[in-house]
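Ticket opened by: R.M.
Priority: normal
Category: complex prediction / small molecule

The reporter submitted a protein together with fe (ii) ion and asked that the result be attached to this ticket for the collaborator who will pick it up next week. Submitted input follows.
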Amino acid sequence: MTDTLFLQPDALSANAFSLLCEQSLTLSDYPLAAEAEKNVLIYHNAALLEPVQSDKIAVLSELHRALSTGPGVLVIKGAYPDSEVIERHNRVFDAIFQQEAARGNAGDHFSAAGNNGRIWNSLQKTAEQDAGSFIEYYSNPTLALVSEAWLGPWYQMTAQVNVVRPGGKAQQPHRDYHLGFQENRDVQRFPLPLQLLSQYLTLQGAVAHSAMPLESGPTQLLPFSQQYPGGYLAWRQPEFIDYFRQHAVQLPLAQGDALFFNPALFHAAGNNVTRDHVRIANLLQVSSAFGKPMETVNRLRLLQLIYPALRQRYQNEQLHGAELAALVAAAADGYSFPTNLDSDPPLAGLAPQTQQQLLLHALQEDWNAEYFNQQLERQQRLRSA
Ligand SMILES: [Fe+2]
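Result attached by the on-call engineer:
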């Protein structure tokens, strides 16, 4: 009888891992990509968004392949073409840092004290701080396109800010949420098909909010390493760490570029060896509608805070199409479940109304903020058990 569906650490093979990681990327397999650098696919934002008009399925398919059977990592140059959008959002981050420092916030438990700054749940906190900047930032169609390519519709956006000051030290190589946050003894209780499945429940992204020259320590990446089935048990083992140290690659990023990778890709933040360059990223962790995200977001509160500004932009026709869809997807819950089917039966079809549907309905009907708030709270009540 075989137990191979419950993988044990002694079945891991650094040799098999290295064979996977030694694949090289064939650029012609990814017709929308501009180039391949160190086995990382590089896309130009406009060249990715433009073909969405004529063949969105082809764009989604290529991005999904890149993250799954391809190198597992891609960069989109100029994902935020207007640097003012990033700069305004940086000022919002600064204000949040100041408020949290004044409250004696402990900072980042993933690094040595003093070197890093962290804003957990920057998604909700930026909406609380500045609704206009939130709307401007998350109405980005590129974030929505890559999220949808990996996760399909109704994904759940979360975000965390990471600031690495000069002297900030590199991380150990690792995989990310879900199983990257569990100890080996718990990982090995999950049958291998579930371990493989889990990578399809999350997308990792990072938007460069400062320039990230190599000396500032942009993320070290090991292309194709997401393909190793036993990787969730392997990343703490010395042979795998050694292989990573010898073969990981880094790419400089410009402010406004975005990096996306499969959460099963081996990666680690780099050393910031500059004297004076502060590296700032907004990390995006996007979850499938079917998965539990890492962070709670109070989406009801978030929506109530942004609704007046959103309504105004909608009525002035400043926000529509792919930008409006991206904003709604990032802000509101798009999934009907879990719910209470006694009090929240489907209005049409088989699935009860979602927060996203309610929000769009409110905008189309031009509800005032008070009525919107009431209806949103009513929906939440009906969904509760
Ligand atoms: Fe990570």
